[in-house]
């Protein structure tokens, strides 16, 4: 039985399950800006028909202008594709770009959606190490060692899920240079780009990847707390002679799906021109407080993690207790059945040893405290 099915059954039996496995802001009381909801509501009368396969012109224009303002050169409305969330576009882009036997360098740890999408396209995800001792920045030397004649793409997740790392400019330049030396396509997942803490600054990879093919993915799901609107986007930048084949393939796939969700697209322009999560990430903001709280409680109970500088997660270990763990998916299920706490095991993110758990930091202080303390106590006595 899968973890979600088990959690559903426990709840139907009357148990309260603390779901700290999925970053759904609305489930934890973070509502989208009211102006976005109002704009979507107002658009409903004009939304029952099919839209443009590539996305509404108003939404794509707003996205193009957003990236031009951020310093990405030569962005046009035709370079933008709107999708039913970034996840649909990730699947479309990997299908359009990759061929059987291609290899894509993916961060370790990294999000499982990407490894799944690469595999579904017939390609092979090849992990490159991110260095915990350096705040989970990418290990450029290890990355270089993974390049082969089959390597076609390089994935960057910034801010990173699951570690919360925000990559420095030097690291991004290094990643771009590896792509430049080997003629690689850059895939950059930036869906947490507005969720930054302390002095962290997000730098769009496309701003420093001039001359390279760069596919940038983003959405309204995290910073704008509107995952249910299913509104994501993909920006394709780079030399036209290299992007044209991918654009043609993406256009064909976009047409096959009909069109992206029309009502949700009406939230994109007001979102990019208005409020996001920034205020909540400042000192005293709710997201900042919960990140700080989760990190402090984890350290207080003997679990260790690098303090996240972005995103909505802590990637924690309890080395003494988890040295007794052989299978972290079994651990996750045992924790769920015994303590009614659902978290994500490190193996979901490619982590090779069963000593990591990812907690989402969106819950309130009491819930986070309860979940972390109970998890720590469970691990102290746990055996496999």
Number of strands: 13
Can you count the helices?
15
Helicity, in percent? 40-55%
Question: Which term fits the overall shape?
Answer: globular
Which helices and strands appear, and what pairs or packs with what?
Blueprint: H1 3-12, E1 18-19, H2 34-43, H3 57-70, E2 80-83, H4 85-97, E3 103-108, H5 112-120, E4 124-131, E5 137-138, H6 140-146, E6 151-157, H7 169-182, E7 185-189, E8 214-219, E9 232-237, H8 240-256, H9 262-265, H10 268-272, H11 278-281, H12 286-300, E10 313-316, H13 319-322, H14 328-339, E11 341-342, E12 344-345, E13 357-360, H15 365-381
Parallel strand pairs: 1-11, 3-4, 3-6, 6-7, 7-8
Antiparallel strand pairs: 2-9, 4-5, 8-9, 10-13, 12-13
Helix pairs in contact: 1-14, 4-5, 4-8, 12-15
Describe what you observe in this structure.
With 384 residues, the chain is of the alpha/beta class. Helices cover 40% and strands 15% of the residues. It has 15 helices and 13 strands. The chain has helices spanning 3-12, 34-43, 57-70, 85-97, 112-120, 140-146, 169-182, 240-256, 262-265, 268-272, 278-281, 286-300, 319-322, 328-339, 365-381, and strands at 18-19, 80-83, 103-108, 124-131, 137-138, 151-157, 185-189, 214-219, 232-237, 313-316, 341-342, 344-345, 357-360. It has an eight-stranded mixed sheet with strand order 2-9-8-7-6-3-4-5. A three-stranded antiparallel sheet has the order 10-13-12. The chain starts with a helix and ends with a helix.
């Amino acid at each position: 039985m899968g973890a979600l099915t088990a959690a559903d059954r426990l709840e139907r039996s009357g148990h309260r399950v603390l779901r700290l496995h999925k970053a759904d802001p609305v489930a934890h009381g973070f509502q989208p800006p009211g102006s976005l909801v109002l704009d979507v509501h107002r658009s409903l009368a004009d939304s029952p028909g099919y839209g443009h396969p590539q996305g509404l012109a108003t939404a794509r224009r707003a996205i193009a202008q957003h990236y031009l303002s951020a310093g990405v050169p030569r962005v046009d409305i035709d370079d933008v594709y709107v999708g039913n969330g970034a996840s649909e576009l990730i699947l479309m882009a990997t299908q359009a770009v990759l061929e059987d036997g291609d290899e894509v360098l993916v961060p370790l740890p990294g999000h499982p959606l990407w490894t799944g999408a690469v595999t579904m396209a017939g390609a092979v995800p090849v992990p490159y190490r991110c260095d915990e001792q350096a705040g989970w920045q990418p290990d450029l030397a290890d990355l270089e060692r993974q390049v082969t004649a089959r390597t076609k793409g390089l994935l960057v997740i910034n801010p990173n899920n699951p570690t919360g790392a925000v990559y420095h400019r030097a690291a991004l330049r290094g990643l771009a240079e590896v792509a430049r030396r080997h003629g690689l396509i850059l895939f950059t997942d930036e869906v947490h780009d507005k969720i930054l803490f302390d002095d962290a600054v997000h730098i769009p990879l496309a701003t420093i990847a001039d001359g390279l093919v760069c596919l940038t993915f983003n959405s309204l799901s995290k910073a704008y707390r509107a995952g249910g609107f299913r509104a994501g986007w993909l920006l394709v930048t780079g030399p036209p002679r290299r992007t044209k084949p991918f654009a043609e393939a993406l256009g064909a796939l976009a047409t096959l799906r009909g069109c992206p969700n029309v009502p949700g697209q009406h939230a994109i322009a007001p979102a990019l021109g208005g409020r996001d999560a920034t205020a909540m990430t400042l000192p005293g903001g709710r997201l900042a407080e919960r990140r700080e709280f989760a990190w402090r409680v984890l350290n207080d109970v003997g679990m260790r993690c690098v303090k996240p500088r972005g995103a909505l997660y802590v990637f924690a270990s309890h080395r003494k207790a988890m040295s007794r763990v052989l299978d972290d998916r079994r651990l996750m299920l045992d924790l769920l059945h015994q303590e009614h706490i659902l978290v994500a095991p490190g193996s979901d993110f490619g982590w090779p040893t069963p000593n990591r758990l990812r907690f989402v930091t969106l819950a309130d202080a009491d819930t986070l405290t309860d979940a972390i303390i109970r998890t720590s106590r469970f691990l102290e006595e746990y055996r496999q």
